Amino acid sequence: MGDGSEFARILAENERYTEAFDRSALTAAPLRGIAIVACMDARLDVEETLGLRTGDAHIIRNAGGIATDDVIRSLVVSQALLGTDEIVVIGHTQCGLLGADEETIRHRLTATTGVDLDIGFGSFADLEASIRASVERLRAHPWIDARRIHGLVFDVETGRLRELA
User: What pLDDT, on a 0 to 100 scale, did the predictor assign at position 3?
Assistant: First the structure.
């Protein structure tokens, strides 16, 4: 464990964390009844940005904050089994997938690994359109409660959230 890796550091941090751990009474159902879909970008601290604490929300993250099949699967579980009734989709400015060329990414990975795979990365040309498309995909799903689904843009320069109409 003393190899200086980030993995060793996080294990040491977990030891520190367990010394004051006080959340064993929480359940899998979020206290605030909300599920968040957000980009995995390290500049977006979902809990801090939204004033959430551990146990308040389900937070599902992926590259682009896109409503993929797996995100939908998780949201169905969140709503049907764990009682959430509101969903917020958060995209952000300066996203790495904004304007990314999927063919360029694929060619670079193929050249690096020697393996060519047909994988989509979810790149998009318009941030707001991408968020709206995810919101609409969720609203259209027959197993998702579509009454309270919102789209937000997080500005990585100011930390401000802007609601999409």
Answer: 66
